[in-house]
Amino acid sequence: MEPADADAYFMFLELRHKVELHRMTGRVIECPIDEMNRPRGTKDAQLRIPPSEPEVGTLFTGWGGELATCRKFAPTARNYTASKLLSQVGLRVSEACGLDLDDIKWDLGRFGKLHVRHGKGARGWGPRERMVPLINGADRTLRWFIEDVWGQFAAGSNSC
Description:
Elements (H helix, E strand, L loop, with lengths): L2 H23 L27 H14 L6 H17 L3 H5 L6 E2 L7 E4 L13 E4 L4 H12 L11
Antiparallel strand pairs: 1-2, 2-3
Helix pairs in contact: 2-3, 3-5
């Protein structure tokens, strides 16, 4: 279902049947498409509902358990760390690939911050720098990677 179609469908439900549906199901009808983050400018956009917190936890618990037995530990741990940072602090893939050790500012804020030098541009403007707080355990994720994994990469190799 296209986002515009979903908007129209849920608007119809809200206008015509909201009270009846609430009485029958005990649920309030609301459009699942986030007004602020909906895809723009594409006809092929699909409704994207992110996984729940328990589903994300299950993914990383399983993936973390497989790290000990994977064939190539360092690159797998790097991918695990990058993916976990994406979920913990909202980094984009390109932003995570552009990070260096100097971008971690342990002394800023309660948990530290990441200096994202190559952030996403906005509406035709170039990349935007930003400081991202290391919340949701991201500080522990980075410390583990730096202390236990970083040294397993060859000197001068690209970590992304």
